């Protein structure tokens, strides 16, 4: 899952970046509305956090511009205490949720996860498919009830595929969603991650949950019976 954080207060921005990296997000960050607007127009983010009070182009103008251009990713706005109008304006402009500063990081993470679930049509934080279960909150993956160890990138790949189950996910799309912008991307590495995931989640090669569609990408699905 790839996230963009637009916040001009350096200390808070750094705190948000650290927290979201711990939550296995690929994190892009910037301090101005101008840069944020550009990044949001260029990149397929899964979710975006926008501070409303930015120097130059305000957070609300950024969101308005994205929405006019048809950018539909979920947006969480951060508003200053006592500025209740910002919440209303933000929601009317196209934000999906808001938090008033100061807030607890745990609450922010829970709300961001809820936005992602809503966007992908999942009501619960646990996604189940046959013998597989993936908990997007604890990042625990179970096969037949037993936890399996995944590296950070293996987890990111599996989470993205399971959140888009039954859809074809291209290597390019996967690459875009699991790496931040400052990362050297190589779509061949995706093949390695998928290969390792197959061995870890399906060691006997029985359920074959990740299908390769030649030239198109991957599809996660579990057939019953
Ligand atoms: Ca600010």
Fold topology:
Blueprint: E1 2-6, H1 10-22, E2 26-30, H2 33-42, E3 47-51, H3 59-68, E4 75-79, H4 84-93, E5 97-100, H5 105-120, E6 126-129, E7 132-135, E8 140-143, E9 146-148, H6 152-163, E10 168-169, H7 171-178, H8 187-201, E11 210-213, E12 217-220
Parallel strand pairs: 1-2, 1-3, 3-4, 4-5
Antiparallel strand pairs: 6-7, 7-8, 8-9, 10-12, 11-12
Helix pairs in contact: 2-3, 6-8
The protein binds calcium ion.
Descriptive terms for the model:
alpha/beta; 8 helices; 12 strands; 42% helix; binds calcium ion
Write a structural description:
By secondary structure, this protein is α/β, with parallel strands linked by helices. Helix content is 42%, strand content 22%. The chain contains eight helices and twelve strands. It has helices spanning 10-22, 33-42, 59-68, 84-93, 105-120, 152-163, 171-178, 187-201, and strands at residues 2-6, 26-30, 47-51, 75-79, 97-100, 126-129, 132-135, 140-143, 146-148, 168-169, 210-213, 217-220. It has a five-stranded parallel β-sheet with strand order 2-1-3-4-5, sandwiched between helices. It has a four-stranded antiparallel β-sheet with strand order 6-7-8-9, covered by helices on one side. Strand 8 (140-143) and strand 9 form a beta hairpin. Helix 2 (33-42) packs parallel to helix 3 and helix 6 (152-163) packs across helix 8 (187-201). The longest helix has 16 residues, at 105-120. The chain binds calcium ion (CA).
């Amino acid at each position: 899952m790839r996230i963009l954080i637009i916040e001009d207060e350096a200390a808070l921005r750094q705190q948000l970046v650290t927290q979201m990296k711990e939550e296995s997000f690929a994190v892009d960050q910037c301090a101005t509305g101008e840069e944020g607007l550009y990044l949001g127009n260029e990149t397929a983010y899964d979710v975006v956090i926008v501070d409303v009070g930015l120097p130059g182009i305000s957070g609300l103008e950024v969101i308005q511009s994205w929405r006019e251009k048809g950018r539909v990713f979920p947006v969480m706005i951060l508003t200053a205490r006592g500025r209740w109008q910002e919440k209303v304006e933000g929601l009317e402009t196209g934000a999906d949720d808001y938090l008033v500063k100061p807030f607890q990081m745990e609450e922010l993470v829970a709300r961001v996860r809820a936005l992602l679930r809503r966007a992908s049509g999942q009501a619960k934080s646990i996604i189940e498919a046959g013998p597989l279960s993936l908990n997007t909150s604890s990042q625990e993956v179970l096969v037949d009830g037993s936890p399996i160890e995944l590296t950070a990138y293996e987890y990111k790949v599996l989470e993205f595929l399971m959140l888009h189950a039954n859809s074809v996910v291209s290597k390019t799309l996967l690459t875009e969603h699991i790496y931040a912008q400052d990362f050297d991307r190589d779509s061949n590495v995706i093949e390695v991650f998928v290969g390792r995931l197959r061995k870890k989640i399906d060691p006997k090669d029985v359920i074959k949950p990740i299908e390769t569609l030649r030239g198109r990408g991957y599809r996660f699905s579990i057939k019953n019976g």
